[in-house]
Records
---
Amino acid sequence: MRIRRSIIIGLATAAGLAGCGGGESSSPPPAPGSGQAQEPTVTPQPRASTPVYGKPGQDGITRVGMLDLRFEPLEVSVKPGAKVLFVNDGKVTHNAKSNHFFTRVVEPGDEKAVRASRKTGRYRYVCTFHPGMEATLIVKK
Ligand SMILES: [Cu+2]
């Protein structure tokens, strides 16, 4: 008898705890306070806030935007052998191909780096997917 009674008590305790826990989790009201606390914290995100095209960024790399359906800007000047980053901020796939470089496929939200020629000059490039989508990379010292 003793053993049996202790088992029954144990089960009752477990059931009580489970019921209590379930009740708490079904009613979580943390919305008003936490929402106000998060609003003023505007964290600066360099990637999103500064898509500066056509001139060297803080990292010294020149970016060219791939938009729908144009390059931004249409002319970019860089030093010989400079790294150029093609950033697809459009909604469709693009590429950039010249007689010197080829990014291959750049998906929306993606980016590909190329090296400018070491020889000065004007390098016209196109997106092979979109006729008329073309621009010029100017290499000068
Ligand atoms: Cu394109």
Note: The CA atoms of residues 7 and 130 lie 76 Å apart.
---
Amino acid sequence: MPRQPTSHERMTGQPWDASYHDGPAPWDIDGPQPAVMRIAAEGGFTGLVLDAGCGSGENALHIAHHGLPVVGFDVAETALARARSKAAERGLQVEFVTADALRLDGLGRTFTTVLDCGLFHTFDRDERREYVTNLASVTEPGARVYVLCFSDQGPDTGPHPVSQDELRAAFNGGWDIVAIDAERVHTRFHGSHGAPAWLVTVDRTSHLAGT
Ligand SMILES: C[S@@+](CC[C@H](N)C(=O)[O-])C[C@H]1O[C@@H](n2cnc3c(N)ncnc32)[C@H](O)[C@@H]1O
């Protein structure tokens, strides 16, 4: 069954893939996000890593460069094609697959660490709950999720600012929010300091809501 357009696609009137058609997308900074580089340098990624909404793959490729097995998924075929050709050029082994974050059962695997860089904040409240349920279906208790999203603490906030309350509401039941740290996320349209962001560190606990 074809996927339904997300709230973001309904709002823009464009499928995600269109963002990758005319040159680099606004978030495509031709390198990993500094926050992701720091997590990797500190050994924060372990086991099989999932990059959710990987785009053209810079973060996934950076994690793979650290020697970890990585799967990146996205709905944008153009971005995935670019990610695969970068992996080939750099001699890095990353599996880039087409998948919908709101229907992850098809991945057929579980992951030790999940990175979400810029995907969570594109969803509306109901999609976020659905997404988090899907994340539970591809992780085991003890898995760690990092969410890097625009924050609502201005000035110069990004297009989908998220509050701490919204983060807590989404990861409610079966998850332990270990930290919500003020961060910066870099884009092509914010200055050299990037935009205000949250880096959310979440662990899956053994108890899941409804079980
Ligand atoms: C803001 S971009 C961030 C891309 C990448 N993580 C980065 O940092 O460059 C959001 C990405 O999520 C993808 N995306 C949006 N909705 C999705 C969904 N339902 N399932 C999978 N990917 C999705 C988009 O195609 C886009 O590549």
Note: The chain has a mean pLDDT of 95.
